[in-house]
């Protein structure tokens, strides 16, 4: 069902409409470049907002700034790796001799040769980057496809350009890449309604036009966030390893998990980068351009993590040195390292934390895109900790050393960028802040009223109490008249609220 919040809009429509949900402030504003409706004066309007948790986040950009950013992005995408006249020519053998820090690290991209030695200490995945030393970065960019057609990455690479790759070697590499196996070839079929942000690895979101049509997001329309190729796992051969501090080594099959008490609850999952596209109107950012559909709500079913840890003999009382629980997936990178993450023991070992090893989603077996046969659901926490295709659980004194725990999904102030970031200076994100988004803006043809609908959600099990809207920049307010939400109580209210 659709839920609308009505705000009376007269002919003299104000410059801004702010939406606030428990401290989060969001904006609906006039912009001549938006794809919104035309009012009677011929001006276009855009629905949107920037989730910030606290404060007012406004979306302002000028014609010159927008055009400049677009032109710069298109230019670097066109010239990256292109042959540059006047630069020295190198053979693939010469590039290959620069395969370690001691010899300087050279790589190729299309027709370009780059000395990236000085960049390696700045790269959060330096160990993976060194695997490309002396050769082409293109096979690795196929695996870590967030690099592809990324103007920020291409711009950084071109700063280290030292020459051209000889044309014969360029053609040879093209043929080799064409013949190489595609690690993403065995991907499942997806619903055509999903909005694709990246094809390989597959990352897609629910269209905002339909996101509030159902309280439980259908599995086929639930956003998909992938970092690596999706494994194809035979449920009959599936095994989950459990071990670490205070645990006896334990291996569980899918059927073993199903013999444990089954628990179900409604919870929303949200990607940490949801609504980044709005942020990119203010600043050139690295990362996928999520519109606002990288969030979904589902009923999850499975075995509680606390029951699995108990089966392995773990108790906090006997193992006070335990500080974290690490999860590893069965999806792996070229070095055979799995996707991994960890959560604090206070969340993991608390029965009221509701951490679930889920094998059902909306009453059906979880699909491959969402972690078949088993994924972790850590309600109220950033999506990156909800590890899919779960293969191992480890109780530990330290958090996961995974790239995605140590060098990604952390928060910094707006002045920190990729040239100055030091990931060791920030803790890994866990609980998510409040967010609220206007998903639909329509005009009532009979009254001229503006009809708004959207979603609101807060991490940490905090229940949305109300959604407030203002048509005049905060002078007067109205309240969303209908909230659709789960009956769970705070602070274990894990699902979203449709308004």
Multimerization status = single chain
User: What proportion strand?
Assistant: 25-35%
Unreliable stretches (pLDDT < 50, length at least 5) are: 1-65
Largest sheet: 5 strands, antiparallel
Helix content: 10-25%
**What characteristic shape results from the CA principal axes?**
globular
Class derived from helix and strand content: alpha+beta
Using the CA coordinates, give the radius of gyration.
Answer: 25 Å
Instruction: Give the end-to-end Cα distance, rounded to a whole number of Å.
Output: 11 Å
What would your notes on this structure say?
The protein has helices at 63-79, 92-96, 126-129, 138-143, 151-158, 167-179, 254-259, 276-280, 305-311, 345-348, 403-406; strands spanning 5-7, 16-21, 24-30, 45-46, 88-90, 106-109, 112-115, 161-165, 195-198, 203-205, 240-244, 250-252, 262-270, 295-304, 324-332, 338-344, 356-361, 364-365, 375-377, 390-396, 435-443, 450-457, 468-470, 478-479, 484-485, 497-498. The chain has eleven helices and 26 strands. Helices cover 16% and strands 26% of the residues. Helix 1 (63-79) packs across helix 5 (151-158). The chain is an alpha+beta fold. It is globular and about 70 Å long. The longest helix has 17 residues, at 63-79. The strands form six sheets. Strands 1, 21, 22, 25 and 26 form a five-stranded antiparallel β-sheet that branches. Strands 4-3-2-23-24 form a five-stranded antiparallel β-sheet, with no helix packed on it. A five-stranded mixed β-sheet has the order 12-11-20-15-16.
């Amino acid at each position: 069902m659709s839920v609308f919040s009505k705000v009376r809009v007269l002919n003299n429509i104000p410059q801004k409409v702010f939406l606030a949900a428990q401290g989060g402030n969001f904006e609906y504003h006039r912009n001549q470049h938006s794809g919104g409706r035309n009012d009677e004066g011929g001006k276009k309007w855009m629905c949107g907002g920037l989730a910030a948790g606290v404060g007012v986040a406004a979306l302002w950009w000028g014609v010159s700034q927008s055009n400049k950013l677009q032109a710069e992005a298109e230019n670097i995408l066109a010239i990256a790796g292109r042959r540059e006249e006047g630069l020295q020519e190198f053979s693939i053998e010469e590039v290959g001799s620069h395969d370690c820090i001691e010899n300087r690290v050279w790589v190729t991209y299309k027709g370009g040769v780059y000395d990236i030695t000085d960049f390696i200490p700045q790269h959060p995945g330096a160990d993976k980057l060194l695997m490309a030393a002396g050769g082409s970065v293109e096979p690795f960019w196929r695996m870590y496809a967030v690099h592809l057609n990324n103007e920020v990455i291409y711009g950084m690479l071109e700063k280290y350009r030292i020459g051209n790759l000889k044309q014969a070697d360029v053609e040879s590499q093209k043929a080799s890449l064409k013949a190489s196996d595609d690690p993403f070839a065995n991907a499942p079929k997806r619903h055509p309604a999903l909005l694709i942000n990246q094809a390989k690895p597959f990352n897609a979101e629910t269209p905002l036009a339909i996101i509030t049509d159902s309280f439980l997001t259908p599995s086929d329309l639930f956003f998909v966030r992938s970092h690596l190729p999706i494994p194809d796992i035979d449920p009959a051969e599936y095994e989950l390893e459990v071990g670490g501090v205070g645990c006896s080594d334990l291996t569980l099959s899918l059927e073993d998990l199903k013999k444990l008490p089954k628990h179900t609850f409604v919870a929303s999952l949200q990607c940490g980068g949801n609504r980044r596209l709005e942020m990119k109107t203010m600043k050139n950012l690295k990362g996928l351009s999520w519109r606002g559909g990288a969030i979904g709500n589902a009923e999850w079913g499975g075995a509680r993590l606390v029951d699995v840890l108990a089966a392995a003999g773990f108790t906090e009382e006997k193992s006070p040195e335990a500080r974290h629980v690490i999860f590893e997936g069965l999806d792996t990178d070229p070095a055979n390292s799995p996707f991994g993450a960890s959560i604090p023991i206070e969340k993991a070992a608390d029965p009221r934390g509701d951490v679930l090893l889920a094998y059902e989603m909306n009453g059906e077996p979880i699909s491959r895109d969402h972690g078949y046969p088993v994924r972790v659901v850590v309600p109220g926490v950033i999506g990156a900790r909800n590890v899919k295709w779960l293969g191992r659980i480890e109780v530990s004194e330290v958090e996961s050393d995974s790239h995605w725990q140590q060098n990604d999904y952390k928060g910094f102030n707006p002045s920190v960028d990729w040239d100055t970031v030091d990931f060791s200076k920030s803790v890994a994100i866990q609980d998510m802040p409040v967010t609220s988004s206007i998903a639909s803006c329509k005009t009532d043809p009979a009254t001229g009223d503006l009809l708004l609908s959207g979603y609101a959600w807060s991490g940490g099990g905090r229940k949305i109490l109300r959604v407030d809207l203002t048509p005049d920049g905060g002078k007067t307010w109205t309240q969303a008249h209908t909230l659709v939400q789960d009956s769970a109580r705070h602070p274990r209210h894990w699902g979203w609220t449709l308004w």
